[in-house]
Amino acid sequence: MKIPFNKPYIGKEEIRAVKKTMKSGWLTSGPVTKEFEKQFAEYVGSKYAVYLSSCTIALQLSIQYHKIHDDIDTAYVPSLTFAATANEAYNAGLSLEWGDVDPDTWCLEPVDLQKGEMAIPVHLTGNKAPTTYSGPVVEDSAHKIDQDQCHGNKNMVCFSFYATKNMTTGEGGMIATNSKKQYEWLLKARHHGISRGPGASPMYSVDFVGWKANQSDILASIGIEQLKKLPDMDEKRRAIIHRYNKGFGPLNTGLHLYPLLVRNRVSFLKKMKAAGIQCSVHFRPLHQMKAYQSTKKLPVTEDIGSKVVSLPLYPEMTDKEVDYVIKKALETKQVL
Known about the structure:
Elements lengths: L11 H13 L6 H14 L3 E5 L2 H16 L3 E5 L4 H9 L3 E5 L17 E3 L18 E3 L15 E5 L12 E5 L2 H10 L4 E3 L7 E3 L10 H32 L9 E4 L3 H10 L24 H9 E4 L7 H13 L5
Parallel strand pairs: 2-3, 2-4, 5-6
Antiparallel strand pairs: 1-7, 6-7, 8-9, 10-11
């Protein structure tokens, strides 16, 4: 049996939508992008949403907004996360303050922010991180898309539509916000800082030095169809997680990844690969990487980071496949 780590849940609906957009003659950001933004904002409960080329650039623009408008120079970030969380704070010119994670949720432990500091909590594996801080917050929600999660939320929330995420547009990301000021700045920021004259006027002005981060109507058309399927995909993921939990004992609840702690990761991954099962690692601590080389001690992060693996998890997994993964994982004698 061959079981991939992930398989996008794409059907004829997405293919039809892409064909329709291709035939429309409008391929870049346009009416389909606007419709996707509208529907996504309604789903997560925000007033506004801005569709972008990746969650990475969503983080970058959100961080840049606070750097410019709130005079931020330091970001409090978890080490147990994907590189983009810390990379984009660093690329924005901020100093990094590494934080450890809660041993139960694996999410960033909150602290009292000082003047000039912001926090970037990550909803790791789909678990909700604490997001109430004394200063600006950008939520890395690449692993979590819930109905109404942004209702009344004062933070910028960044989502991912990468191929392995809860829903996908192949590549892409979104910022949800309830601030009109942030929304209007983001619309300019994603397109070189340009503002245009009223109506269909070709006249424009570069109001500030921006970025190239807009996304295409082609991929937005996939997003509209995926959003319709998201509740069903979530239910399928919950069923798989429940079956995994019965087999392994832990009570994992996040819908994006199914993490497992093992004694010897190299041995475990080798045996699972031999059994035809593709696993992955989410995540190795960033503060121990060559790029950062921090001497700070983060005991919970370091312990998890040395033992964690991620098992296959996608809506089309059958009970037979899930049971096979459980059986082969337990046979390794490495599961903690």
